[in-house]
């Protein structure tokens, strides 16, 4: 007797996605709160949005904004260069070199930045004149400290030297993240310590160094407002001078906040582009992107690149 019946094909498995009702509730609550807060801010007469619009591009505000950007860029350059030097010194096998770097980091991280700014501004109280010469001998160059350390120089010294202490620890962590085997391989090839650092260690350490450095840059942009204690003219100083004359405190503070938000947003975008550049060739080079519904509610639909989300 022949078998006339065939085996029935298995039924297609129908996957039912898990419902995340908590995410739906959280999303609705967040949207509702955003609408309430947004409406309150826009319709609040005390915000005086017309005054905000009048002073947003005021000449004094823009001049203060320019000085803020200059302080941020130059201070970060001092901090990054100083941080690399201090990190290398800190990792040196020479105890004097390592100890000097450790003492510097301890001193500048252990005292408030606002105190350092004031000390640099009044540095003439400690040293009325600054000179360069032979120890216990004649001075070749000498200058009045008050004339040498202006408000701008005091702001750069306070911000830049303080940042160097923090950048030193960031760079040191990045350098130590590189596998020691690569350092040994470079040494076996006869590469000098400086060449190994420049061509092997730092390029790989940048993947670890860039994200916190971007955060430090954004923090520096906002930290420049502390130079108001020594009277240097920057964004917050310009705003304070204006509302001291017209008593429009609330709208002018909003003007300053809007400019800070704009600049930090630009710096955030630049940081992401730099991170992508240094992440090339790694698993982090092309991060997975999902649409807004997926991020908020957990949907696993199509991603923004046109492919299927995993």
UniProtKB/TrEMBL annotation:
The chain crosses the membrane at residues 21-42, 69-91, 103-128, 148-168, 225-243, 249-270. GO terms for cellular component: ATP-binding cassette (ABC) transporter complex. GO terms for biological process: amino acid transport. The keyword Membrane applies. The keyword Transmembrane helix applies. GO terms for molecular function: transmembrane transporter activity. Keywords: Amino-acid transport, Cell membrane, Membrane, Transmembrane, Transmembrane helix, Transport. Pfam families: BPD_transp_1. It is a multi-pass membrane protein. Residues 65-271 form the ABC transmembrane type-1 domain. It comes from the Bacteria. It is found in: Cell membrane. Belongs to the binding-protein-dependent transport system permease family. NCBIfam families: HEQRo_perm_3TM. This is Amino acid ABC transporter permease. It comes from Amycolatopsis rhizosphaerae.
